[in-house]
Every structure is written in C-alpha cells, then in structure tokens.
C-alpha cells in the first residue's frame, strides 16, 4: 500500500507526511529529554506548510514553536495555535506591539529592548523576552562585553513590570561538524553568560542553544530546550550521514507528472544553450518543473524517479521545465509512452533523496526544501492513519493557500 496514492492528482505537488513529522518529533524528544523541544517552523516550516506542521508538532509533544519573524509567529496565532511561541529576528519595522498582544515571546539581542518595552508600556502588558548572547556565531546576540549591562537593563524593566525575562539563548556555528572544537568554546561562553544572568537575579524558565545537529551530537548542549528544525522534517544535518541512520523519516515528497515524451535522433540538443546532445537515437521526457518551482537552475544531473527507474536531468534546468533522457527508443506515441507518468524528484519509497538534489546543486538539504515555491501545491497525508478509516484520504485534501 502506498499512502501517496491517497493524494489527489495535482500537477506539481509537495506531499507532506504528517506521520513522519510526528515520528521525528517523538524520536528527537525522546533523545533530548528531560530537555523540551521547540519545533522551528520558520520559512513556512522549511517549505512544508507552517500551520499544518505546527499543529502536528504540538500534537506530537513539541512544547514550543519557533519562528524567525514576528509576522510568521502572528500567522500561527491567527491560525489558532496557542502553544508557547517565540520569534527572534527583528527589524525596526517589526510589530513588537502585535507580538506582545499575541503573547509571542521575543528573542532580543540589544536594540530591540527599548522597542519591546515601549510596546509593553503602551499595551500595559509585560513582554516575554529571551535574551540572546553571541557565543561566537557573529550574527545576532549581545556581545560578551555588553552582556552584564544588557541583563541589568532587562532586569530593571522587569522590576517595573514591563517585561519578564523568560529565557536565555544563543545559536551554534559549527554543530554540523561535530569534530570541531569551536562548539566547546561556544557552550562554555553560554554557561558563563547564564551564570552572569543568574547572579544578577534572572529567574529564567528556559536556557536554549542547540539546533538539530547539536541535539543529535552534543548532549551537553541540550540545557532546558532544543530548537529543532531540519530533524523534524526528517533530514540529516551531517554530511555523509543519512536520515535513516539517525532514525529520521523524510517528510516531503516532491513530484509532478511527465508532460511530454518524444523520440529524437542522435545529436539532438537539449534545453537552453544546447549543452546536452543525445549520443544516439533516444526518447526524451519533459518534467514540468524548473527554477520558478524552486528546483535550482544549477542542478543539472539531479535525479528523477519515473516508472521505478532514476534518470538524471540533462541539459539546463529552465524556469518551468527540465528534461530527462530515457535512453531507449520505440516508446513515444505507444502505450509505453511516459506522458502522464508520475515523476518523483525526492521523497517516498525508492525515490532519490533531498541530499542528492543538494549535492547536484552544490548546496545543502535545508535550501532544497525551503525554496520549493508557491507554484507547487502542498498536500498532506498521514501514513499512520488506518487506511480503512479513510482518514488518510481526508487529510490528503487539505491544501494551504
Ligand atoms: C533555523 C534555526 C534553528 C533550527 O536549526 P536546524 O538546524 O534546522 O535545527 C534553531 N535556532 C535558530 C536561532 C534558528 O534560526
């Protein structure tokens, strides 16, 4: 039985298996306990659909949800999500008032403190903040030398009833390379910063620094909570180590339907630039996805599964389409024609992996799933739902706008 068959036909679909999300959350929660798990659903849940994934993650035991932007967190509240929710990347245009009003925790590194306090003062509602220390990544986070005074300012506002310091957090730079020593240094700086804050009187609920690779490889990074993105989607953060080895199940299958199939002679050029020429008479099949759908233009050679066989993309990937060479003749225009057959780029049984597309693109699996565009329909299945109940079919119909 193939649960993907429950998905209604769509021309270009990213099918998300909510059972895989649930499995990954439970697996990772077990691994990191007693630390709690924040499910990171920024960037539309890495392309999987923020609302569906957030609901599923909370059902499966995620204690918190995390997004980069306040606007992403607000969309979850509007969608009915009431779980603890935190956003950590802001600009002068960010709507801190809306965040405070919607009970969204705000990660702050410095300048945001005054803006958040102004919002809290106006609403007469204390803001919930997590103070971020830069332990070495060099992006957001309060520099070490300013930390004590930053903590002091936050505590003064807390005294005034304008905010509550809920958490202390940081972010790791090289956790995907477990042999590197910089993580040790970052964890030491984090422990020092927590001690400074505690000595100053911060009574935090959660200390958090680990992302997926740290959750998997550094138990000493778990503290009170881990922030899990990639692992929840069932992918491995480690080069050279697959998802299955880590006990994770990839949640997304990206597929379409072959749009054309035709016989060509030897020497036929394929796609813009004519960089591929057929060596002998063959059959070409047209895969109707391209870089406007989020398939990287540089990923020539990327694998496509059709009819139980994997074919590499030949020639340039264009905006809307790409071509595979079937390496055989006599099928175009016959019942064996590939027109209408399902073409799977990644995910599902026997199909290529996201990691193979990442390799073909010179990128990482994070980017491949995140960049799938709005032209691709998202649909949802639940491979654990008992087939007889019909609930897999029911779930399959839900499509986010
Ligand atoms: C995106 C993000 C995460 C999740 O990272 P993964 O490697 O996908 O688990 C965690 N923390 C912060 C601050 C992030 O921006």
Which helices and strands occur, and which strands form pairs?
Blueprint: E1 12-17, H1 18-32, E2 36-40, H2 42-46, H3 50-59, E3 64-67, H4 70-78, E4 85-87, H5 96-101, E5 105-108, H6 112-123, E6 127-132, H7 144-159, E7 163-169, H8 182-200, E8 206-210, H9 212-217, E9 225-228, E10 252-257, E11 260-264, E12 269-270, E13 276-277, E14 282-287, E15 303-306, E16 309-314, E17 322-325, E18 342-346, H10 354-361, H11 365-370, E19 377-381, H12 391-396
Helix pairs in contact: 1-3, 7-8
Bound molecules: pyridoxal-5'-phosphate.
**Count of the separate structural domains:** 2
Gyration radius, to the nearest Å? 24 Å
Our count of helices gives 12
Label the structural class. Answer: alpha/beta
User: What is the general shape?
Assistant: elongated
Characterization of the model:
The chain is of the alpha/beta class and 401 residues long. It has 2 domains: 18-233, TIM Barrel, CATH 3.20.20.10; 252-370, Lyase, Ornithine Decarboxylase, Chain A, domain 1 (Beta Barrel), CATH 2.40.37. Helix content is 29%, strand content 22%. It is built from 12 helices and 19 strands. It has helices at 18-32, 42-46, 50-59, 70-78, 96-101, 112-123, 144-159, 182-200, 212-217, 354-361, 365-370, 391-396; strands at 12-17, 36-40, 64-67, 85-87, 105-108, 127-132, 163-169, 206-210, 225-228, 252-257, 260-264, 269-270, 276-277, 282-287, 303-306, 309-314, 322-325, 342-346, 377-381. The strands form 3 sheets. A 9-stranded mixed sheet has the order 11-14-17-16-15-18-10-1-19. It is elongated and about 80 Å long. The two termini are 29 Å apart. The structure holds pyridoxal-5'-phosphate (PLP).
């Amino acid at each position: 039985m193939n649960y993907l068959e429950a998905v209604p036909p769509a021309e270009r679909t990213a099918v998300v298996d909510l059972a895989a999300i649930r499995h990954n959350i439970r697996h990772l929660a077990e691994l990191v306990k007693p630390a709690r798990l924040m499910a990171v659903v920024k960037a539309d849940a890495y392309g999987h659909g923020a609302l569906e994934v957030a609901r599923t993650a909370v059902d499966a035991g995620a204690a918190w949800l995390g997004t980069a932007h306040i606007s992403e967190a607000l969309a979850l509240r509007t969608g009915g999500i009431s779980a603890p929710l935190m956003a950590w990347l802001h600009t002068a245009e960010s709507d801190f008032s809306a965040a405070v009003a919607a009970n969204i925790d705000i990660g702050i590194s410095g300048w945001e403190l005054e803006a958040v306090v102004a919002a809290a003062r106006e609403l007469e509602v204390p803001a919930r903040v997590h103070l971020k220390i830069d332990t070495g990544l060099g992006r957001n986070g309060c520099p070490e030398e300013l930390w004590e005074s930053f903590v002091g300012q936050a505590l003064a506002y807390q005294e005034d009833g304008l905010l509550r310091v809920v958490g202390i957090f940081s972010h790791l730079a090289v956790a995907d390379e477990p042999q590197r020593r910089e993580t040790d240094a970052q964890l030491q700086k984090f422990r020092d910063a927590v001690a400074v804050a505690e000595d100053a009187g911060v009574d935090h609920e959660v200390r958090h620094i680990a992302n997926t690779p740290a959750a998997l490889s550094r138990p000493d990074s778990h503290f009170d909570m881990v922030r899990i993105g990639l692992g929840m989607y069932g992918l491995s953060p480690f080069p050279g180590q697959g998802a299955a080895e880590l006990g994770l199940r990839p949640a997304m299958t990206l597929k379409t339907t072959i749009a054309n199939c035709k016989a060509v002679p030897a020497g036929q050029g394929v796609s813009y630039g004519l960089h591929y020429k057929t060596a002998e008479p063959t059959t070409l099949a047209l895969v109707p996805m391209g870089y406007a759908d989020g398939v990287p233009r540089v990923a020539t050679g990327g694998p496509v599964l059709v009819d139980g066989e994997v074919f590499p993309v030949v020639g340039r990937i264009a905006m809307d389409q790409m071509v595979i060479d079937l390496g055989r003749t006599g099928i175009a225009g016959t019942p064996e024609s590939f027109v209408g057959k399902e073409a799977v780029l990644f995910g599902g049984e026997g199909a290529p992996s996201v990691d193979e597309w990442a390799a073909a693109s010179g990128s990482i699996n994070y980017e491949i799933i995140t960049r799938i565009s709005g032209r691709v329909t998202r649909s949802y299945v639940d491979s654990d739902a008992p087939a007889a109940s019909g609930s897999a079919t029911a779930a399959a119909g839900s499509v986010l706008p």
